[in-house]
Amino acid sequence: MAWQDVVFQYDGSFDGFLCCVFESYVHKEFPIAFYSDEECFSLYSVRSILTVPEHARRVYRGIFKRSKRAAELLHRAFLTCMEDKELHLYTFVRKLMDEGPDFLRNQSDAAYYPVAKALRHMSGELEKLRGFIRFSEYSGVLGAEIEPKNRVLPLLRNHFCNRYANEAFFIYDSTHKDLLLYSSGRSRMMRVDSLQLALPGEEELCFRALWKRFYETVAIRERENPRCQNTFLPKRYRGTMTEFLPLDYERQQQNLPSSHDVANGAIIRMIDSIELPPTTSLPEHSI
């Protein structure tokens, strides 16, 4: 029996994708496209796939049995922003099932190359976000917002939960609408369509002003190199970084009139009035 070309419609989850693989083999259907939207219009037959945990576990066990590494790569690659992601991952799974894991030794393999390339891109973004996330205090809770291309928040979870084990914090991924909550040693991931940040207090504004002043002061103006800076700190990350944002950017996002102009001016004057200890000159013979 020849395999029939169809369009798969599923819920967009990893388990849902595994169920698509299951249904593909059961019904001898080859997916030419995947949709996770509620409405799907196509000239091809459309099959709506229900997410059945047992079917997903069965497929994942089969992949894991053939190659533990392939199972880990598949799970991680599903978090990437790879174009036509499901089609590439389906091709990856089909080749693993048909030929075994030997093709994983060759990253130029047609089935493996798109996956390896997407994983490299996500790893670079993940490493940058570990250092570029900026927290603010909102009524005793630390909060941050990120705008990643890949769905990296599940991969950042352990890092920040271990780093801020004694804090209560949240990180919101505004691109994929994921929210990470952590408090008292417990963390939770949930989906939130929108998140409106609270207005910062005067103390938080003061710390922001101090950080911006440090950023401006520590740089050597004569050695500014925008091209080098863009290499190590791409502009797409700066939209959520304190040093590149107005002090009360939450008010601007909510289209509220700024009421902190006077307070911000007082903060800046307070910073300017801080007297630093005089630099001690070293004797010439000690240099």
Question: Order of helices and strands, N to C?
Answer: EHEEHHHHEEHEEEHHHH
Strand content: 5-15%
Estimate the mean pLDDT confidence. Answer: 87
Total helix count? 10
Tell me the Rg in angstroms. 25 Å
Net shape: elongated
Q: Helicity level, as a percent range?
A: 40-55%
What strand line-up does the widest sheet have? 4-5-6-7-8
The poorly predicted ranges are 274-287
What structural class should be given to the helix and strand makeup? alpha/beta
How is the biggest beta sheet arranged? Answer: 5 strands, mixed
Count of strand segments: 8
Distance separating the two termini:
85 Å
What does this molecule look like?
The chain is built from ten helices and eight strands. The radius of gyration is 25 Å and the shape is elongated. The model is unreliable at 274-287 (pLDDT under 50). The strands form two sheets. A five-stranded mixed β-sheet has the order 4-5-6-7-8, with helices on one face. Helix 1 crosses helix 2, helix 2 (53-66) crosses helix 3 (68-77) and helix 3 crosses helix 5 (113-132). The protein has helices at 14-27, 53-66, 68-77, 85-99, 113-132, 153-163, 202-218, 226-232, 249-253, 261-272; strands at 4-9, 29-35, 45-48, 136-138, 141-146, 169-173, 178-183, 186-191. The chain has 287 residues and is α/β, with parallel strands linked by helices.
